[in-house]
Design goal:
Protein name: DUF1440 domain-containing protein
Shape: elongated
Keywords: Membrane, Transmembrane, Transmembrane helix
Organism: Halonotius pteroides
Oligomer: single chain
C-alpha cells in the first residue's frame, strides 16, 4: 500500500475519495452516537441545542427531525475534518507505512483532533450560545453527555475509516 503522500492516498485512493470516506465514516459515527445519546439522562439535548443555535430557535421548540438532521450533518462535517487532518498529518515527514489501510499516526491524530474539536466546539461555543435553562441548569450534565458521545464518535471513526479504506482500495 502507498502512503498518503505518494500522490495517491492509501491503497491508491485519491484525496477526494479519502475525504468522502471521512465524511461517510463521520455520518456512520453520528448514527452510532444516537444509541448512547438515547440512553443518557439528557437524551438528545445536545442535538436540540445545536439545532436551536443554528436555526435561532429555542431548543424546546426544535423538532426532533431538525435536531437529528443537524446532528448527522455535523457528524459528516466532523468526518470531513478528520479526513483533512489525516491527509495533512500524513504529509508531514517522516512518513510511516500505512497500517490497516490508513497511515497510523495520521489516523490517530485525525481522530484525536476531531474528538477534541467536536467536544470543545459544542461545550464551549454552542452550549453557552443556547443560554436559558439548558445552559444554566444542565450545562455540566450536557457537557458530560457530549464528552461521552464524542468519545463514541471517535471510537467509531477509529474503526470505520480504515475498514472502508481497505475495502475500497484496489
Amino acid at each position: 500500500m502507498e502512503s498518503l503522500t505518494s500522490g495517491l492516498t492509501t491503497g491508491g485512493l485519491a484525496p477526494p475519495l479519502f475525504l468522502a470516506i471521512g465524511i461517510a465514516a463521520g455520518v456512520v459515527a453520528a448514527l452510532v452516537m444516537d444509541w448512547p445519546m438515547s440512553r443518557q439522562p439528557e437524551g438528545f439535548t445536545p442535538a436540540y441545542i445545536a439545532a436551536g443555535v443554528l436555526t435561532r430557535t429555542p431548543p424546546t421548540d426544535v423538532r426532533f427531525r431538525t435536531a437529528m438532521f443537524v446532528h448527522h450533518l455535523a457528524g459528516g462535517l466532523a468526518g470531513l475534518l478528520y479526513g483533512l487532518v489525516a491527509l495533512g498529518v500524513d504529509r508531514l515527514p517522516p512518513t510511516l507505512p500505512p497500517t490497516v489501510g490508513v497511515g497510523l499516526p495520521a489516523h490517530l491524530v485525525g481522530v484525536i483532533v476531531v474528538v477534541g474539536f467536536i467536544y470543545a466546539f459544542f461545550a464551549h461555543l454552542v452550549l453557552p450560545r443556547a443560554g436559558g435553562r439548558p445552559y444554566e441548569e444542565q450545562a455540566t450534565a450536557v457537557r458530560g453527555q457530549w464528552l461521552r458521545s464524542a468519545l463514541v464518535y471517535g471510537l467509531t471513526v477509529l474503526v470505520v475509516a480504515p475498514v472502508v479504506v481497505v475495502s475500497v482500495s484496489p
